[in-house]
Specification:
The N and C termini lie far apart (39 Å). This protein is an all-beta fold. It has no helices and eleven strands. The strands form two sheets. Strands 2, 4, 5, 6, 9, 10 and 11 form a seven-stranded mixed beta sheet that branches. A four-stranded antiparallel beta sheet has the order 1-3-8-7, with no helix packed on it. Helices cover 0% and strands 51% of the residues.
Length: 118
């Protein structure tokens, strides 16, 4: 089973940028995705990317976030720009067992905290 470790979170002002990274323990052909969970809210899908390069974004982040994969380094990234206070959450990465439904495998790591101040 692939182990995933998130990093790159931090505190930024509204309008700022962050780049998250998700390091995998081994190469995977699975689609992968980023999810986030704010306090008191269910975890939600943010962005996903297949091995072949297809991507999909939640409407709330379209045009602001960019997902990418560097399979040579077993690493996935989430470039976040024009951050808003409502982007504040713990961000997690996971492999996807369903690309159509963006269903995560569900073996969650510690995540990385993103805090956007107004």
């Amino acid at each position: 089973e692939v182990q995933l470790v998130e990093s790159g979170g931090g505190t930024v002002q509204a309008g700022g940028s962050l780049r998250l990274a998700c390091a995998a323990s081994e190469f995977t052909l699975y689609a992968m995705g980023w999810f986030r969970q704010a306090p008191g809210v269910e975890r939600e899908f943010v962005a996903g990317a297949t091995y072949s390069g297809d991507t999909h974004y939640a409407d709330s982040v379209k045009g602001r976030f960019t997902i990418s994969r560097d399979d040579a380094r077993n690493t996935m990234y989430l470039e976040m720009r024009s951050l808003r206070p409502e982007d504040t959450a713990v961000y997690y990465c996971d492999t996807l067992v369903s690309w159509l439904n963006h269903t995560p495998r569900g073996s969650w790591g510690r995540g990385t905290q993103v805090t956007v101040s107004s």
